Amino acid sequence: MEFEKNGCRIHYAQVGEGRDIVLLHGWGGCIDSWKPLMRDLQAHARVSALDFPGHGQSAEPPAPWDVSDFAQATAEWMRAAGIEKADVVAHSFGGRVAIVLAAEHPELVGKLVLTGVPVPGLLENRPNAKKRLRGFVYRTLRSLCSARLLGAARAARLREALVQRFGSPDYRVLSPSMRQTFNRVIAQNLAVFLPKIRAATLLIWGSEDTAAPLAIARMLEKRLQDAGLVVFEGADHFAYLREYPRFYAIVQNFLLKGR
Protein backbone atom coordinates (compact mmCIF):
# COMPACT_ATOMS: atom_id res chain seq x y z
CA MET A 1 0.00 0.00 0.00
CA GLU A 2 1.12 3.55 -0.64
CA PHE A 3 0.34 7.10 0.53
CA GLU A 4 1.76 10.31 -0.89
CA LYS A 5 2.69 13.48 1.00
CA ASN A 6 3.95 16.49 -0.94
CA GLY A 7 5.22 14.23 -3.69
CA CYS A 8 6.87 11.82 -1.25
CA ARG A 9 5.71 8.24 -1.74
CA ILE A 10 5.25 6.42 1.59
CA HIS A 11 4.93 2.64 1.70
CA TYR A 12 2.89 0.94 4.44
CA ALA A 13 1.33 -2.37 5.42
CA GLN A 14 -1.90 -3.18 7.20
CA VAL A 15 -3.03 -6.55 8.59
CA GLY A 16 -5.87 -7.80 10.76
CA GLU A 17 -9.17 -6.24 11.73
CA GLY A 18 -10.61 -4.34 14.67
CA ARG A 19 -9.18 -1.61 16.85
CA ASP A 20 -6.10 0.09 15.49
CA ILE A 21 -2.47 -0.32 16.54
CA VAL A 22 0.29 1.59 14.75
CA LEU A 23 3.96 0.50 14.80
CA LEU A 24 6.78 3.01 14.22
CA HIS A 25 10.26 1.65 13.46
CA GLY A 26 13.69 3.02 14.38
CA TRP A 27 16.21 4.86 12.22
CA GLY A 28 17.58 2.58 9.52
CA GLY A 29 14.72 0.13 10.04
CA CYS A 30 11.56 -0.54 8.09
CA ILE A 31 8.24 -2.38 8.32
CA ASP A 32 10.16 -5.66 8.57
CA SER A 33 11.44 -4.55 11.99
CA TRP A 34 7.94 -5.31 13.26
CA LYS A 35 7.25 -8.63 11.51
CA PRO A 36 6.90 -10.71 14.70
CA LEU A 37 4.65 -8.16 16.41
CA MET A 38 2.47 -7.68 13.33
CA ARG A 39 2.10 -11.45 13.03
CA ASP A 40 1.00 -11.86 16.64
CA LEU A 41 -1.17 -8.77 17.06
CA GLN A 42 -3.18 -9.18 13.86
CA ALA A 43 -5.43 -11.75 15.54
CA HIS A 44 -6.57 -9.06 17.97
CA ALA A 45 -6.45 -5.76 16.08
CA ARG A 46 -5.85 -3.99 12.80
CA VAL A 47 -2.11 -3.41 12.79
CA SER A 48 -0.51 -0.78 10.56
CA ALA A 49 3.16 0.02 9.99
CA LEU A 50 4.87 2.38 7.57
CA ASP A 51 8.33 2.78 6.13
CA PHE A 52 9.31 6.28 7.21
CA PRO A 53 10.41 8.50 4.30
CA GLY A 54 14.00 7.66 3.43
CA HIS A 55 13.61 4.12 4.78
CA GLY A 56 12.54 0.78 3.35
CA GLN A 57 10.41 1.19 0.23
CA SER A 58 9.45 4.82 0.88
CA ALA A 59 10.97 7.72 -1.04
CA GLU A 60 13.22 10.27 0.64
CA PRO A 61 11.59 13.44 1.97
CA PRO A 62 11.40 16.23 -0.64
CA ALA A 63 13.59 18.39 1.65
CA PRO A 64 15.48 17.82 4.91
CA TRP A 65 12.94 17.03 7.65
CA ASP A 66 12.98 17.22 11.43
CA VAL A 67 10.99 15.05 13.84
CA SER A 68 7.95 17.33 13.63
CA ASP A 69 7.83 16.85 9.86
CA PHE A 70 7.87 13.07 10.28
CA ALA A 71 5.12 13.31 12.90
CA GLN A 72 2.96 15.46 10.62
CA ALA A 73 3.43 12.99 7.76
CA THR A 74 2.50 10.14 10.11
CA ALA A 75 -0.68 11.94 11.18
CA GLU A 76 -1.68 12.54 7.57
CA TRP A 77 -0.93 8.91 6.68
CA MET A 78 -3.07 7.67 9.58
CA ARG A 79 -6.04 9.74 8.45
CA ALA A 80 -5.60 8.65 4.83
CA ALA A 81 -5.42 5.00 5.92
CA GLY A 82 -8.69 5.33 7.83
CA ILE A 83 -7.08 5.24 11.27
CA GLU A 84 -9.14 7.54 13.49
CA LYS A 85 -7.30 6.69 16.70
CA ALA A 86 -4.63 4.11 17.46
CA ASP A 87 -2.42 2.78 20.19
CA VAL A 88 1.17 3.38 19.11
CA VAL A 89 4.19 1.11 19.66
CA ALA A 90 7.48 2.78 18.77
CA HIS A 91 11.20 2.04 18.89
CA SER A 92 14.08 4.54 18.96
CA PHE A 93 13.60 7.14 16.20
CA GLY A 94 10.00 5.97 15.85
CA GLY A 95 9.58 6.90 19.51
CA ARG A 96 10.78 10.42 18.78
CA VAL A 97 8.04 10.66 16.16
CA ALA A 98 5.49 9.13 18.55
CA ILE A 99 6.29 11.73 21.23
CA VAL A 100 5.59 14.61 18.86
CA LEU A 101 2.56 12.82 17.40
CA ALA A 102 1.01 12.27 20.85
CA ALA A 103 1.71 15.87 21.85
CA GLU A 104 0.56 17.60 18.66
CA HIS A 105 -2.19 15.19 17.56
CA PRO A 106 -3.63 13.75 20.80
CA GLU A 107 -6.89 12.89 19.05
CA LEU A 108 -5.02 10.24 17.03
CA VAL A 109 -3.21 8.49 19.89
CA GLY A 110 -4.67 6.11 22.46
CA LYS A 111 -1.95 4.37 24.49
CA LEU A 112 1.79 4.60 23.91
CA VAL A 113 4.50 1.96 24.15
CA LEU A 114 8.00 3.42 23.86
CA THR A 115 11.19 1.38 23.80
CA GLY A 116 14.78 2.60 23.49
CA VAL A 117 13.91 6.20 22.61
CA PRO A 118 16.59 8.93 22.71
CA VAL A 119 14.97 12.18 23.91
CA PRO A 120 17.13 15.25 23.24
CA GLY A 121 16.70 17.93 25.87
CA LEU A 122 15.70 15.51 28.62
CA LEU A 123 19.15 14.92 30.08
CA GLU A 124 22.23 17.09 30.02
CA ASN A 125 24.43 14.69 28.11
CA ARG A 126 27.98 15.99 27.83
CA PRO A 127 30.15 13.96 25.42
CA ASN A 128 33.19 12.33 26.97
CA ALA A 129 36.66 13.72 26.26
CA LYS A 130 37.31 11.29 23.41
CA LYS A 131 34.09 12.26 21.61
CA ARG A 132 34.72 15.97 22.16
CA LEU A 133 38.21 15.64 20.67
CA ARG A 134 36.89 13.63 17.73
CA GLY A 135 34.25 16.27 17.06
CA PHE A 136 36.80 19.08 17.28
CA VAL A 137 39.14 17.36 14.81
CA TYR A 138 36.28 16.72 12.38
CA ARG A 139 35.02 20.32 12.50
CA THR A 140 38.53 21.70 12.11
CA LEU A 141 39.36 19.54 9.10
CA ARG A 142 35.98 20.18 7.49
CA SER A 143 36.50 23.93 7.80
CA LEU A 144 39.62 23.52 5.66
CA CYS A 145 37.63 21.86 2.85
CA SER A 146 36.84 25.15 1.15
CA ALA A 147 35.54 25.01 -2.42
CA ARG A 148 37.14 28.43 -2.99
CA LEU A 149 40.57 27.13 -1.98
CA LEU A 150 40.42 23.57 -3.28
CA GLY A 151 37.84 23.68 -6.03
CA ALA A 152 34.30 22.33 -5.71
CA ALA A 153 35.00 18.75 -6.79
CA ARG A 154 38.06 18.24 -4.61
CA ALA A 155 36.41 19.89 -1.59
CA ALA A 156 33.38 17.62 -1.98
CA ARG A 157 35.60 14.52 -2.16
CA LEU A 158 37.48 15.55 0.97
CA ARG A 159 34.28 16.28 2.89
CA GLU A 160 32.97 12.84 1.96
CA ALA A 161 36.25 11.27 3.09
CA LEU A 162 35.85 13.00 6.45
CA VAL A 163 32.30 11.68 6.79
CA GLN A 164 33.51 8.15 6.08
CA ARG A 165 36.31 8.56 8.63
CA PHE A 166 34.44 10.31 11.43
CA GLY A 167 30.74 9.62 10.82
CA SER A 168 28.74 6.93 12.61
CA PRO A 169 27.78 3.81 10.61
CA ASP A 170 24.19 5.10 10.36
CA TYR A 171 25.39 8.44 9.04
CA ARG A 172 27.95 7.16 6.53
CA VAL A 173 25.44 5.22 4.44
CA LEU A 174 23.00 8.14 4.05
CA SER A 175 22.52 10.29 0.98
CA PRO A 176 23.49 13.98 1.34
CA SER A 177 19.83 14.96 1.81
CA MET A 178 19.20 12.28 4.43
CA ARG A 179 22.35 13.36 6.28
CA GLN A 180 20.77 16.80 6.62
CA THR A 181 17.57 15.15 7.83
CA PHE A 182 19.53 13.05 10.32
CA ASN A 183 21.22 16.17 11.70
CA ARG A 184 17.87 17.94 12.10
CA VAL A 185 16.33 14.91 13.79
CA ILE A 186 19.02 14.45 16.42
CA ALA A 187 19.18 18.18 17.13
CA GLN A 188 15.48 18.72 17.82
CA ASN A 189 14.60 19.20 21.50
CA LEU A 190 11.82 16.74 22.32
CA ALA A 191 11.57 17.37 26.05
CA VAL A 192 9.39 20.41 25.33
CA PHE A 193 6.65 18.12 23.99
CA LEU A 194 6.40 15.90 27.09
CA PRO A 195 4.04 18.11 29.18
CA LYS A 196 1.46 17.97 26.37
CA ILE A 197 1.22 14.16 26.31
CA ARG A 198 -1.91 12.77 27.96
CA ALA A 199 -1.69 9.19 26.67
CA ALA A 200 -1.07 6.36 29.12
CA THR A 201 2.50 5.32 28.35
CA LEU A 202 4.41 2.08 28.91
CA LEU A 203 8.20 2.32 28.77
CA ILE A 204 10.08 -0.91 28.01
CA TRP A 205 13.85 -0.51 28.23
CA GLY A 206 17.02 -2.56 28.12
CA SER A 207 19.24 -1.93 31.13
CA GLU A 208 22.31 -1.96 28.85
CA ASP A 209 20.95 0.35 26.16
CA THR A 210 23.80 2.68 25.19
CA ALA A 211 21.93 4.49 22.38
CA ALA A 212 19.16 5.53 24.78
CA PRO A 213 20.44 4.96 28.33
CA LEU A 214 18.10 3.75 31.04
CA ALA A 215 18.38 7.16 32.73
CA ILE A 216 16.22 8.53 29.89
CA ALA A 217 13.47 6.02 30.65
CA ARG A 218 13.56 6.84 34.36
CA MET A 219 13.28 10.54 33.58
CA LEU A 220 10.43 9.92 31.14
CA GLU A 221 8.59 7.99 33.83
CA LYS A 222 8.80 11.05 36.07
CA ARG A 223 8.01 13.67 33.43
CA LEU A 224 5.07 12.02 31.67
CA GLN A 225 1.67 12.36 33.31
CA ASP A 226 0.75 8.66 33.17
CA ALA A 227 3.73 6.35 32.65
CA GLY A 228 5.17 3.08 33.91
CA LEU A 229 8.56 1.47 33.28
CA VAL A 230 9.56 -2.15 32.70
CA VAL A 231 13.30 -2.85 32.58
CA PHE A 232 14.75 -5.85 30.73
CA GLU A 233 17.93 -6.58 32.67
CA GLY A 234 20.92 -7.24 30.43
CA ALA A 235 19.11 -6.21 27.24
CA ASP A 236 20.43 -3.59 24.84
CA HIS A 237 18.87 -1.03 22.46
CA PHE A 238 16.96 -3.80 20.71
CA ALA A 239 15.33 -5.24 23.82
CA TYR A 240 12.03 -5.63 21.95
CA LEU A 241 13.70 -8.15 19.63
CA ARG A 242 16.23 -9.72 22.00
CA GLU A 243 13.45 -10.70 24.42
CA TYR A 244 10.54 -10.71 22.03
CA PRO A 245 8.26 -13.26 23.80
CA ARG A 246 8.41 -11.21 27.01
CA PHE A 247 8.00 -7.95 25.10
CA TYR A 248 4.94 -9.26 23.28
CA ALA A 249 3.30 -10.57 26.45
CA ILE A 250 3.72 -7.21 28.19
CA VAL A 251 2.50 -5.20 25.19
CA GLN A 252 -0.49 -7.48 24.69
CA ASN A 253 -1.47 -7.15 28.33
CA PHE A 254 -1.09 -3.35 28.29
CA LEU A 255 -2.92 -2.73 25.02
CA LEU A 256 -5.52 -5.47 24.88
CA LYS A 257 -6.42 -6.52 28.42
CA GLY A 258 -10.07 -5.86 29.15
CA ARG A 259 -10.90 -4.92 25.57
TrEMBL record:
Species lineage, top-down?
Bacteria, Bacillati, Bacillota, Clostridia, Candidatus Ornithocaccomicrobium
Q: Name one GO cellular component term.
A: membrane
Report the superkingdom from the record.
Bacteria
Q: Which residues form a coiled coil?
A: none
Q: Where is the AB hydrolase-1 domain?
A: 21-241
**One example GO MF annotation:** hydrolase activity
Q: Which Pfam families match?
A: Abhydrolase_1 (PF00561)
Q: What is this protein called?
A: Alpha/beta hydrolase
Organism the protein comes from:
Candidatus Ornithocaccomicrobium faecavium
Keyword annotations for this protein, in alphabetical order, are: Hydrolase
